[in-house]
Design a protein that fits this description.
Elements lengths: L9 E14 L5 E13 L2 E8 L6 H4 L9 E3 L13 E4 L6 E3 L8 E4 L3 E8 L6 E7 L8 E3 L4 H9 L3 E5 L6 E6 L1 H12 L8 H7 L1 H25 L5 H13 L9 E2 L8 E2 L19 H6 L10 H11 L6 H8 L9 H23 L3 H5 L2 H15 L14 H16 L9 H12 L2 H18 L1
Parallel strand pairs: 2-6
Antiparallel strand pairs: 1-2, 2-3, 3-7, 4-5, 8-9, 8-12, 9-10, 11-12, 13-14
Helix pairs in contact: 4-5, 10-13, 10-15, 12-13, 13-14, 13-15, 14-15
C-alpha cells in the first residue's frame, strides 16, 4: 500500500483487510485486498481505497472469521441491484483465488461532498458485510467487503461526523448523503462578508439570534446608506426624486414615543423591547362546509354539475367536509370537467390510468447505464428520494420506515418528471403532493390532481 504523506493528509479512520471482487480472463472471481481510508486533506475529507500488494497470506487470513464449513459469496455485477449476496456452495480448495500483484484499474478516491448515496448489505449466514459508494455524477464504485462484520458500523459512524446520512424511504439498504447544514450556513454567511471574524458568523447567531440578526441588517443598512449618500453627493439622484421621497416619509411618519427602547453595546441598531400596537383584523363569519346532501343537489340526471360558480362560492366560504374531498377536489383541480357526465368521467379515467402507468414504465425501465448519461434525470431522482425520506412521519398515514405511501409519493413524483420534464422537480413539491395522496388514497387519482394543481400554480406565476 502506498505510504501516506503526513503533510498533505491525515488518517481519520482506516479499515484493513477489506477486499474487492473482480473477474479474471477466465471469468472466475478473484479478490484484491486493500485498506479503506477516510482522509482529511487540505480541501476536505476524502474516501479512498488503496490496494495492498503485500497481502500474501490472503487465502488463510480471509477465512479466519468463518468456521470449518466456510462458504463463498457470489455477487451480481449490476451496480443498481446489490442484492445477490446469498451464500452458495461450500468452498473447496482452489475455489477462491487471491490476487497479490494485480493492480485495480478503477481507483476509489473521492471527496465526501461528491458522495450522493451508498448501499450497505450484510450476509445472511455469516458476519460478512459490504458497502458500495454512488457518486453524484452517477458513478457506482464496486462493493468493498468487510471480513470482520461490524467494521462498517464504525466506519459509518465516522462518516456521519462529516455528512448527514439518511436511510432511503424506498430502499432499506440504501442511505442518502447530504452535507451538514451548519457547514452550508457557515459558508453562506462567510460569502456575505458581514462580520470581521468570518469564522464565527454562525456561532454568533447561535449565541444571540436577535442581536446577531440586527447586527447583520444594520451593517447592510449602513452600507446602503453610505452608497446612497455617496451617490447623492455625485448628483446621480435628481433633486425632484429626493423631494418626493422626503415628502413620502413625512406623510407616513409614525409616533414611536410610546415604545420603550434600550441601546445595546453595538450602536449600529436600535433594539425595540415592545411590539407596536396593530389594528385588530375584522373577523368574518365562516360558512358551513359543503356536505353530501348539498353536493348531490348540484348534479343533473346525467351527472353534470348544474351551477359550478355557486358551488365554488359555498366551498370558498365554508370548505368541504372530509368525506367529500376526494370527489370534489377532482373537479377543483381540473381532473374532471364540470360539464362532464358520469359516463364520460368513467371512460376518461380509464384512459388516464393507462397513460399514467405508461409514463411510470418509462422511468422504471431505465437502466443504470442510461442514467449515467442523463445527469438531469439523476439529479431529480436524487432530490426526490431525499425529500420523500423527509416526509413527516408523525402523521399516521406516513408513519413507519417501510410505509407503502412513501413509495407511492416517490413514484408519483418520478412519473411527474416524465410527464413534464421542463418543470421536472423542485424542492417542496413533495410537501404539496402529500396532502393530495392523504385525501385521494389512490396513486393515479393523486397524480392527475397533482398535475392540475401544478398547472394552477404555473398559471398564477
Amino acid at each position: 500500500m502506498a505510504a501516506l504523506d503526513p503533510i498533505q493528509e491525515k488518517v481519520v479512520y482506516s479499515v484493513t483487510h477489506t477486499y474487492i471482487k473482480v473477474k479474471n480472463g477466465s471469468n472466475k472471481e478473484e479478490y484484491i485486498y486493500g485498506t479503506l481510508l477516510m482522509l482529511e486533506k487540505p480541501d476536505g475529507c476524502h474516501i479512498e481505497w488503496r490496494e495492498d500488494p503485500t497481502h500474501v497470506d490472503a487465502v488463510n487470513d480471509s477465512w479466519d472469521f468463518i468456521n470449518a464449513d466456510a462458504v463463498s459469496f457470489t455477487y451480481s455485477n449490476s451496480a443498481a441491484e446489490l442484492t445477490d449476496l446469498t451464500p452458495t456452495a461450500a468452498r473447496t480448495e482452489g475455489s477462491c483465488r487471491m490476487i497479490n500483484q494485480q493492480k485495480f484499474h478503477n481507483p476509489i478516491n473521492f471527496h465526501v461532498d461528491n458522495l450522493r448515496s451508498f448501499k450497505r448489505m450484510k450476509g445472511k449466514l455469516v458476519k460478512n458485510s459490504c458497502i458500495m459508494f454512488i457518486l453524484d455524477c452517477g458513478t457506482s464504485h464496486p462493493p468493498i467487503y468487510f471480513p470482520k462484520g461490524g467494521v462498517t458500523d464504525k466506519f459509518l459512524h465516522h462518516l456521519g461526523k462529516k455528512v448527514i446520512i439518511t436511510q432511503s424511504a424506498t430502499d432499506g439498504n440504501r442511505f442518502l448523503v447530504s452535507p451538514h447544514q451548519q457547514e452550508a450556513l457557515e459558508s453562506s454567511f462567510d460569502a456575505l462578508n458581514l462580520f470581521a471574524d468570518q469564522g464565527s458568523a454562525l456561532s454568533r447567531f447561535a449565541a444571540d439570534p436577535v442581536r446577531g440578526t440586527f447586527t447583520a441588517f444594520a451593517k447592510v443598512s449602513k452600507l446602503l446608506t453610505n452608497t446612497l449618500v455617496a451617490s447623492e453627493d455625485k448628483n446621480s439622484v435628481p433633486p425632484e426624486i429626493c423631494d418626493q421621497l422626503r415628502i413620502s416619509v413625512e406623510e407616513n411618519e409614525t409616533d414611536f414615543s410610546a415604545i420603550h427602547s434600550t441601546q445595546p453595546e453595538d450602536p449600529d441598531f436600535l433594539f425595540i423591547d415592545e411590539k407596536a400596537q396593530l389594528p385588530e383584523v375584522e373577523k368574518k363569519p365562516r360558512g358551513e362546509p359543503l356536505k353530501r346532501a348539498v353536493w348531490e343537489k348540484f348534479f343533473d340526471a346525467e351527472g353534470r354539475v348544474t351551477n359550478p360558480e355557486e358551488l365554488k362560492q359555498i366551498i370558498y366560504r365554508g370548505g368541504v367536509s372530509h368525506d367529500l374531498r376526494s370527489e370534489v377536489w377532482k373537479f377543483l383541480l381540473s381532473f374532471y370537467s364540470w360539464d362532464s357526465t358520469t359516463r364520460e368521467r368513467e371512460e376518461f379515467r380509464k384512459t388516464k390510468v393507462d397513460e399514467y402507468f405508461a409514463m411510470k414504465l418509462q422511468w422504471k425501465s431505465m437502466t443504470e447505464s442510461q442514467k449515467s448519461r442523463f445527469s438531469d434525470f439523476r439529479d431529480r431522482e436524487s432530490l426526490i428520494e431525499k425529500d420523500v425520506s423527509r416526509t413527516d412521519r408523525m402523521t399516521p398515514f406516513f408513519s413507519g420506515d417501510n410505509n407503502e405511501r412513501l413509495h407511492q409519493l416517490n413514484d408519483i413524483l418520478m412519473t411527474f418528471v416524465m410527464y413534464d420534464f421542463n418543470l421536472g422537480y423542485v424542492q417542496g413539491m413533495s410537501d404539496l403532493l402529500s396532502p393530495l395522496l392523504l385525501v385521494m388514497e389512490n396513486e393515479v387519482d393523486t397524480f392527475w390532481c397533482f398535475v392540475g394543481f401544478m398547472n394552477l400554480l404555473v398559471s398564477n406565476a
